[in-house]
Design brief:
- By secondary structure, the protein is an alpha/beta fold.
- It is 38% helix and 12% strand.
């Protein structure tokens, strides 16, 4: 039986992706070192052009991280004290944290229990005269249901900032994540499908004037140098990260396809083990593509199952164990347990399994067999 074989399966094996590109990546890093141009410059300019072509947009601005992408996008809209921003209660902390950093109020809504994304039916009810933006999250690599969100935003004149940190390459009705709303925000954290060798991010904007404002804010609001029209910050992507991302970008579509292949293999393996009734697998609604930045299942007795997998040498992660409304730092919002039942149920049952493109069939079989054993235990 495969599960009797002792092997180790990491949640993510970055070495497996790096080794085939090592010579090219080191050459790109050397190119930057030889140029001694580390702040913005031609590498960042070239990356922005290449990402614009990849996403089919005219205006993309590389920034220092996915978190900073969200922060600068909200700053460009002038959001601040007294404003409200609607978003999901179930996401990585930066989604709500950036709203709060600007002294605005995160107005949280529950999730669709099938997709884990913000429930669009709850957005309209959350809008008040103080609502200044809506931040839908494309969680795990699957777009939120954008049509009703776009409809209500357009009706009310409210901008949409897509949190596409985990979703580069995902589509909603043939439109790329991050290109549907007013702005889109991406992360190049090393674990992402397109990952840097450190921090990095991107903002997309459909409007030239908005893009210009973002570029201004990314560099302390200075134009020209030392003359500051606005208070911005140091949100610049450094040239070394841009050079690495330029090497990786041509491989992104293939890497995503491999993740999608692995997701299909998981579906078959879970079905062949008779686990479909016990394990809730990811769902891809009609009209959307999933890039599987994470492959997240729901399992009973999640913490015990995770411990069994860890004992077998299998890496897993919980994205995310505590929804925003139950985080200590957001106690002032006045929420209590039970306010957002779908997010709370997800937080107690979700488990991310290895899904990276270099994962082998043998490794996936080992993971599923171990999970089957854990569920029997």
């Amino acid at each position: 039986m495969t599960s009797a074989i002792r092997m180790r399966v990491k949640l993510l094996d970055l070495q497996a992706q790096y080794q085939p590109l090592r010579t090219e990546i080191l050459a790109a890093i050397t190119r930057v070192c030889d140029s001694q141009q580390f702040i913005l410059g031609p590498e960042v300019d070239a990356l922005e052009r290449e990402l614009a072509a990849h996403l089919g947009l005219s205006h993309v601005i590389a920034v220092s991280s996915g978190t900073d992408a969200l922060l600068v996008a909200l700053m460009a809209l002038g959001i601040g004290a007294g404003d409200e921003v609607i978003t999901s209660t179930f996401s990585f902390f930066a989604t709500a944290g950036c709203i709060a950093r600007l002294r605005a109020t995160p107005v949280l809504v529950d999730i669709d229990p099938v997709t884990f994304n913000l429930d669009p039916a709850l957005v309209a009810a959350a809008i008040t005269p103080r609502t200044r933006a809506i931040v839908p999250v494309h969680l795990y690599g699957l777009c939120a249901d954008m049509d009703p969100i776009v409809d209500v935003a357009r009706e009310k004149g409210i901008p949409i900032v897509e949190d596409a940190a985990q979703a580069i390459g995902a589509t909603f009705k043939s439109r790329q994540a991050g290109t549907i709303g007013t702005m889109g925000c991406f992360s190049f954290f090393p674990t992402k499908n397109l990952g840097a060798f450190g921090e990095g991010g991107l903002i997309t904007a459909g409007d030239a004037s908005l893009a210009g404002e973002i570029r201004l804010l990314r560099n302390h609001g200075a134009e020209p140098k030392y003359f500051h029209r606005r208070i911005g910050g140091n949100f610049r992507l450094d040239a070394l990260q841009a050079a690495v991302l330029r090497v990786k970008l041509p491989h992104l579509d293939r890497w995503t396809s491999l993740r999608q292949r692995n997701a299909e293999r998981y579906q078959s393996l879970f079905a062949s083990r008779g686990l479909i009734e016990r394990v809730t697998l990811p769902v891809i609604p009609r009209g959307r593509t999933h890039i599987f930045n994470q492959f997240v299942v729901r399992v009973p007795e999640r913490d015990r199952v995770q411990a069994v997998l860890a004992d077998r040498g299998i890496g897993t992660e919980i994205y995310y164990p505590v929804p925003f409304h139950l985080q200590e730092c957001f106690a002032s919002l006045g929420h209590t347990r039970g306010d957002f039942p779908h997010a709370e149920a997800a937080a107690s049952s979700v488990l991310a399994l290895p899904i990276y493109g270099e994962l082998t069939l043998e490794q996936q079989t080992f993971v599923v067999d171990a999970l089957a054993d854990a569920l029997r235990g």
